[in-house]
Every structure is written in C-alpha cells, then in structure tokens.
# Entry
Amino acid sequence: MLPALTEPIIVIRPAWTMQRGDRVANWKTAIEHEESDCMIRPVQGEETEVDGRRRSTVVTRWMLFAPLDADITAHDRVRWSGAVYKIDAEPQPVTTHSPFLDHLETQFTKVEG
# Structure
C-alpha cells in the first residue's frame, strides 16, 4: 500500500441479471463499499465540438491508485468527489521492490453530453 494515500472512494458494484441469455448489470440493486487509502490524479480529457460552436461531449479521466488488496473490478463504478465514474479497465497490480509501494492502478471516466 502506498503510504501517502489518504483519499476514500465508494465502489459501486452492480447486481447481475440475465436478459435474453446475456448477463446484464443491474445498477438499481448495486452494492456499495468504501475503499480508503486511495490516490486520485487527473489524466487529460477531451472535448468534442459540433460545428465549431459549442461543446457536445466532454470526457473527464482520472487515474486511480489503490491498495493492492482493494476490492475493485472493471465492472464497477466509483463515487468520488460528488460524482460517479465508470472504471475503464481491469485494475492492474503494480509491484515494486518495496511492499509499501505495491498498489493497483486503473482509470475512471465520466462522459457528459
């Protein structure tokens, strides 16, 4: 676990149902749990314009560094700083020469517009 990590996040995990033979996330019955000791850093986002006049889509990205034993999957969502974000990919373990620096990394994203 990274020693300087102090920010909590809420992990939102969907219940799964079957619809027409496919496994589908049910966010209405999602279960939440807190993961503490996380670090969040901004990643460059993007903005799409329509006819050069105004923005139509804004993508905001953040990098999440969590303790190695954090319970986070690629199917989860994250509530942080008053907003809900989608996890972009399976969290990857990062191991170092010091067990105090081992952690998970992934990105989360919010798309507006």
